[in-house]
Amino acid sequence: MCSLCGMLGGRGHWTESTSHPEAFRRETPSTRGRERQQRTRQVNRVLAHYGLVVSDFSGTGYVLRTRTGRSAIIANLTELWAEAERLTGRACDPLDGALLTALEDS
Amino acid sequence: MGAHADLIPIHVLTGFLGSGKTTVLKRLLQSPRLTDTAVLVNEFGEVGLDHHLIEHASESTLLLDNGCLCCAVRGDLQVSLRELLDRRERGEIPRFERVVIETSGLADPVPIAYTVLADPLVQHHYRLGNIVTVVDAVNTLAGLSRFPESEKQVLTADHLLISKLDLADAEDPRALLARLNPSARISDASDLDPAALLADDLYTEAGKKRAVETWRQAPTEHSHGSAMTSFCLTFDAPLDWSAFGIWMTMLLNRHGEKVLRIKGMLNVAGLSAPVLVNGVQHIVHPPTHLDAWPDEDRRSRLIFITRDMQREPIEASLVAFNRLANRQAA
Hints:
The structure holds two protein chains of two kinds. Chain A is of the alpha+beta class. Chain A has helices spanning 32-47, 77-88, 97-105; strands at residues 52-57, 61-66, 71-74. The longest helix of chain A is centred in the middle third of the chain and has 16 residues, at 32-47. The N and C termini of chain A lie far apart (31 Å). By secondary structure, chain B is an alpha/beta fold. Chain B folds into two domains: 4-201, Rossmann fold (3-Layer(aba) Sandwich); 221-329, 2-Layer Sandwich (Hypothetical Protein Yjia, Chain: A,domain 2), CATH 3.30.1220. In chain B, helix 3 (73-89) crosses helix 4 (109-118) and helix 11 runs antiparallel to helix 12 (311-329).
């Protein structure tokens, strides 16, 4: 999977542990839905810094929205960051001190 | 669709001009362990020299005739890999258990990895195995700083094979290579281990153990005297997988061109065994795991090989992202 194009194949994105059960052997397996909910909650705390919000789309993708109503459908986290940068015109940089401070304060 | 480990591994054999990779390939293919190997050879220029050198493997050899493999590789490589499968199904070539792609001396191995991991049809049948780079102890090492192609071949490798070691009159290049790429296994090309190079990889038990053994010896940090830096981050507390995925996709989206490799063994919250992660620039392999921790040390370890990036901001960022998950759970 390329993090730039996020090209989808028959296999789940590498971040989805429920798509790789052989690598994530939990005593109490997480469900796909629960994992998606957790991911959505977490990523929204990051996206808030950029004025964006993401929500689940039928359990198969996500809808990314700006405060002004622009939106895009994305398939996975890889696509999310490229689309977030496109929608906002800002660099979404996890090394940005301002972002890390915002995460601390949130 | 079967498990990732059941797919046909594609190993990439690369090395700068004159490093001796064709000699290495020829010797490897003589091993009884590797008789069921299909070979894709990059034909550079009008004369397919490499093809003649490995003609004994010609039954399963497809020549890529567009020159440098990395420039226009995707289409050709996709076609070649599909054609291999078709010919196998038609009985025109024997069944093969692995594919070796021998690149040109100037090739960038990353687009090959990209093709294997990004193309839906290819990834249905194949997975990326090892990137094996042959390093000429005399000429390649001397020219590393002058030839970015060569430097990248070394920095993105899973295995480094040193050729012409008997001709090197300077210090043993193994130490230098270990500093340049602490995530790679290093061995002498005159003493080849076919199984370690082209049979085992991160999706076989023996390959995982070998890799993790190397990773655990990685030094904390090394600056290469240029823009390249390698370092190993360690984390005592378990990492939240969702937070890690958010962080790493964000990091690679913004800085993937500067992150030549990420390899690591993670203590993921809620799991009793470590998860192995492996990335090459923007590309991330599907995660795999060890059956158990090798010893009492349960720390997560992440090795980075980067260009123009420093250790501290990356470490601080991952800690901050992981704390988010902890706070959420509280």
